[in-house]
Design goal:
It comes from Candidatus Jeotgalibaca merdavium. With 104 residues, this protein is an alpha/beta fold. The protein has a single domain, classed as Hypothetical Protein Ychn, Chain: A (3-Layer(aba) Sandwich). The chain contains 4 helices and 5 strands. It has helices at 13-26, 50-53, 64-69, 87-96, and strands spanning 2-7, 31-36, 58-63, 81-84, 100-102.
Length: 104
């Protein structure tokens, strides 16, 4: 199974963190991607999210358009974050190959 969690609101980072940690605890084999776009892109810069972002077995995608809109550079992101050209396109592509879509 595969799942993509979509964060586009800054205040949804905490809820997503809880959801993903609970999921990984009971089903670590699920391929989990967190796609972040919009204003929520700023969550990558918050110290309180760093341990979650470095969580083993979870992949983080950052929308390049959101990075530019919020004046965030690639160098400011944790090294395991993958930059995708557009968050919306990433969601479409992931869903087209079987990822379930979750928006906390």
């Amino acid at each position: 199974m595969k799942v993509v969690f979509h964060i586009d609101e800054l205040e949804k980072w905490e809820e997503t963190t809880k959801n993903v940690k609970n999921l990984v605890k009971i089903a670590p084999e699920i391929d989990t991607v967190i796609l972040v776009n919009g204003i929520a892109i700023n969550g990558f810069l918050e110290e309180k999210h760093l341990s979650f972002i470095k969580m083993s077995g979870v992949h983080f995608h950052a929308c390049n358009n959101a990075l530019h809109a919020n004046n965030i550079t690639k160098e400011q992101l944790p090294e395991n974050v993958v930059i995708v050209p557009a968050g919306v396109l990433d969601l479409i592509e992931l869903q087209s190959v079987g990822y379930a879509y979750i928006k906390p």
